[in-house]
Amino acid sequence: MIARVIAWTTQSPRSLLRQAVALAALTWLTLAVMGSLLAPLLAPAGPLAADTTRSLLPPGPGGLLGTDLLGREVLTRLLWGGRQTLGMGLLAMTVTVGLGLPAGLLAGFFGGRVESITMRLADALLAFPGLLLAMAAIAVLGPGTASVAMAVGLAAAPAYARVARSAAIEVRTQPYVEAARALGGDAWRILARHVLPNTAAPLIAFAVAQLGWVLLNGAALNFLGLGARSGTPEWGAMLNEGRGYLRDAPWVSGFPGLALTVTVLAANLLGDGLQRALRPR
Amino acid sequence: MTKYVGRRLVQAAFVLWLAVTLAFAGLQLTPGDPAQALLAASGATPEQVAERRAQLGLDDPLPHQYARYLWNLARGDLGQSWLHGRPVGQMIWEQLPATVELAVAATMVGIVLGLALGILAALRRSTWLDTVTTAVSVVGLSTPTYWSGLVAILLFSLYLRWLPATGEGDLRHLILPALVLGFALSGSIARLVRARVVEVMEEPYVLAARARGLPSWRVLLVHVLRPALPAALTVVALQLGFLLGGAVVTESVFARRGLGKLAVEAILWRDLPVVQGVVVVGALAYVLVNLTADLMQTWLIPRLQEELT
Predict the structure, then answer these.
(1) pLDDT tens digits for chain B (309 residues)?
(2) Do B181 and B254 form a contact (C-beta atoms < 8 A)?
(3) Helices (DSSP H) in B124-269: which residue ranges?
(4) Could you say which of A254, A274, B83, B101 is the most buried, measured as most Cβ atoms within 10 Å of its Cβ?
(5) Residue A143 host element (H or E)
(6) Which three-class secondary structure state does DSSP give residue A64?
């Protein structure tokens, strides 16, 4: 068991490294997370520090990425906005994995009625268009940043449950699991000791790929005004705020949009790369 | 075959019933009194609210309410807006054409672009062209339409002044939103078409057709494109959820009328019957389109019919 984990951890990064794209994606995500975490150090003035004498300055040596209507630094708001946007992604993925992983693993491992109930429920939830399901959840929870994160997390959970189920089914029929069962091992112990570690690789990869979806749609809901209050430094909300003066100051919407696009792209590429690297051949 | 169609129909009906039930449960979980919400604007007395509660049947036991909800849905009655006091079905019906127009136009753009990119990548497999087209499709998948939409407005409306930025009316207003949403859609179509064409190119009948010296455009059109089409069709059906969600956002970017605007306003005003109605209509569309796509695919690929019987 331990040998397997070691083999996995030592081998997979190497096969990953071969893919320069996945590495670049990982680098960007790391930079984005670092930038957000270090925002108070990098931009101590804070995202709300306004200076109306410096309204709508173009990007350049003086203002780096320019300023918005209230003279707030776009770069500063971008760094602080990363805390909101990436934090939203993290909370949403916690909800997705928290709901989808147990449901999927139990369904795949135990089969029978547990499986048919959870999977029919997942099917029904998958019948709703993802963003609409998230919007319905916000209608129930009430608008707000936490609601947005929970709503997109919930909307992504059924797909995660399905993938977790097929991963568990694959492992369930492996000789070592069958041996453990034949020896009369406790089902929960087998689940924790054998099934969970051996499904970890594909499930981590899928979670990374879903992070892209979650970020894209969570920021969309903020863009639509269903989450962050106006003025909050959040990438989707910043994009929306800049729309009013798109012609005169395209950088106010442009940079948050670029940051978001590159981050979503990075999550998708890294997810792809991981899925390919971890697929057993 | 008939057995498969029957099973697929039952399956679709079951998923739809469960989805509709979840929508009912969601509304029940929401705090607040619908009668109060309906009458809030007119400043009604508690007696009037109580009377309205009785009228709406909100005092009935939950199973009764649920049965009535299903019965009303079956008759096409989606309830009444808390904010406007109008039938939800009517409100959705008014906004539907604008959204369907955008969705259909975007799907056409997506299919044309996706087929072109996918076939190009497959035919020039493992060359720089393959890399570039694959990259374009991944970027299409990852770019938020609310950003590409703004970039398109900036470029084509504000700088080049070719097309109107926002609003609706003639076909010119439809071009930019359809291109933006269609581009986002084309990525997933291109991926699957590429995979399918790579597969098909190695089939003996394609080799035979090429060996017979048929012109390459003919091989492409008759022998390669035909099997690739069902693949594109399935993606479109599976991506309908993405398309509807994307339409909501795109409508907002281009200030268009449609279901998106209706839903966003309903959420902000907590007009829950309208939200419920839009979500139920979305689920209905998704289930029906996927059912149709599945049945069409078995019809387009005769081999599947044998496997299924």
Answers:
(1) 677 788 888 888 888 888 888 888 887 777 766 677 667 666 677 777 777 777 777 777 888 888 888 888 888 888 888 888 788 989 999 988 888 889 999 999 998 898 888 888 888 877 788 888 878 888 888 888 888 888 888 888 777 778 777 776 677 778 888 899 999 888 888 888 888 888 888 888 888 888 888 777 778 777 777 777 777 777 787 788 788 888 888 988 888 888 888 988 888 888 888 988 998 888 888 888 888 877 877 777 666 666 655
(2) no
(3) 128-142, 145-152, 172-201, 204-211, 216-218, 226-238, 240-253, 259-268
(4) A274
(5) none
(6) strand
Apex B293 CA angle, B287 and B298, nearest 5: 130
Distance of CA B290 to the CA centre of its chain: 11
Dist CA B146 CA B157 (whole Å): 16
Instruction: Report how far apart, in Å, the C-alpha atoms of A169 and of each of A14, A198, B9 are.
Output: 28, 11, 27
Which listed CATH number (2.60.40.420, 1.10.3720.10, 3.20.20.140, 3.30.1490.190) goes with A12-41+64-278? 1.10.3720.10
Assess contact for A65 and A186: CB atoms under 8 A: no
Query: How far, in Å, CA of A149 to CA of B21, rounded?
Result: 24
Q: For A104, phi and psi rounded to 5 degrees?
A: -70, -45
> What are the chain B neighbours of A140 within 8 Å (beta carbons)?
26-27, 29-30, 272
- How does A228-256 read in b/e, with b if 16+ C-beta sit within 10 Å? beeebbbbbbbbbbbbeebeebbbbbbbb
What b/e readout covers A97-111, taking b as 16+ CB neighbours within 10 angstroms?
bebbbebbbbbbbee
- pTM of the entire structure? 0.84
Q: Which tokens is B279 given?
A: 């979500």
Q: Report how far residue A9's alpha carbon sits from residue A13's, in angstroms, rounded to the nearest whole number.
A: 7
| Domain residue extents for chain A | 12-41+64-278
CB-based contact A239 B266, cutoff 8 Å: no
Query: Cβ of A127 and B15 within 8 Å?
Result: yes
Q: Given the structure tokens 């041996």, which residue do they identify?
A: A179
Q: Which residues of B touch A212 (CB under 8 A)?
A: 142
Minimal C-alpha gap between A138 and chain B (Å): 7
A123 interface with B at CB cutoff 8 Å = yes
Name the 3-class secondary structure at A55: coil
The pair of structure tokens assigned to B154 is: 């900036």
Q: Which of chain B's residues have a Cβ under 8 Å away from the Cβ of A142?
A: 270
d(CA B175, CA B191): 24
